[in-house]
Amino acid sequence: MEDVLVIGAGPAGNNAALELAKQGHRVTLADRRYTIGDKLCTGIVGAECVRQFPVDQAHIYRTASAATVSAPGGQHVRIARETPQAYIVDRVSYVADYARQAQEAGATYMLGHTVRSVQIERNHVSAIVQNGAGPQEIRARSLVIATGFGSRLTKSLGLGHVQDYAGGIQATVTTTGVDEVQVYLGKRFAPGFFGWLVPTAKDRALLGLMARKENNEHFAELLAHLQQKGLVQDVVNGPSRWAIPLRPLKQAYRDRVVVVGDAAGQVKPTTGGGIYYSFLSSRIASQVLHRALRRDDLSEDSLSEYEREWKSVLGGELESGYTARRIFELLGDRQIDVVMEALSSSGFVEKLLHSEGLGFDWHSGVIREFLHWPLLQGVIRSLGGIATKTLSRSA
Hints:
Elements: E1 2-7, H1 11-22, E2 27-31, E3 44-46, H2 47-52, E4 60-64, E5 66-70, E6 76-80, E7 86-89, H3 91-104, E8 108-111, E9 114-120, E10 125-131, E11 134-145, H4 153-156, E12 165-175, E13 181-184, E14 195-199, E15 204-211, H5 215-228, E16 232-245, E17 253-254, E18 257-259, H6 275-294, H7 300-330, H8 333-346, H9 348-353, H10 364-371, H11 374-383, H12 385-394
Parallel strand pairs: 1-2, 1-11, 2-8, 5-13, 11-18
Antiparallel strand pairs: 3-7, 4-7, 5-6, 9-10, 10-11, 12-15, 12-16, 13-14, 14-15, 17-18
């Protein structure tokens, strides 16, 4: 019998397998895919993430120290720092490298195996997995669910499902003169969310957006707009679509089970980024599981330590980010234009850039400053109703 069964070979699953195998535990990882790390993603990771979870230099497309945000009315705000704030990486290679390290540490990988069912027994977890050769049972003392968003496993095990999410759409395009990340706001391209153009290789970029509905139509609008401006020429791959959780599970553990990464909704609600938070949550889960396995106590009460620890690190960020997300979705194009115009002329951007709270992965400090900005408070109050209540709760 294994010590740990990990389901899912994304950043969270691979890192959990790596850290637990390095601790000497018997680990098996199952994933229905054969290609590791192939989930759709912009591949932007912060400098802090790269320091804690290193990426091979060969997998880095370029560094990012600036981004330009475009308002619906055409106003632009450029946000820049002197040092790199993020890295645009080959996500497939980055994630696959952690799978390789996990296997070198002793973890067994079962790729191309679909998990059909999971049962929590008194002394173990029993999972039925299946590939072309038929079904087989895997028994383990504990289970890490790292399946990404949309898995039915959390609901089947009594942990419910993520309550709020958005849709993403992205394609690889050819470009001219695009050297920095571009962000596009407004209901035409991404109502309540944003679109992006992220340069990767020479004359190549990822074009995409988040929205709650009509993603295909908004993508076509954004593509046509950028083609008209001469920034984008052709689509060379895609578009492809995926779902992005915006809220965490109410509880991400039970007897013998922890849920990590996108499956637990541990994703930045502001940007939809999840790589770093997946790494962090899987590290916390691995440490908690290691201690629980050593004392042979995998009860719900014992594993509640995981919930306390991940929330102490990420909970405040997720809550403040979701507050900002709800307020932003209430803004119309005119309100966004007013805010962007004020940002470009008031010096508030420079103030934020020099704020200790501004970080690529940690947004709560900047969100607090932004929500206390008098002009934004006035815009929000002009909306009335739920916007004002949301602002008052965040004060």
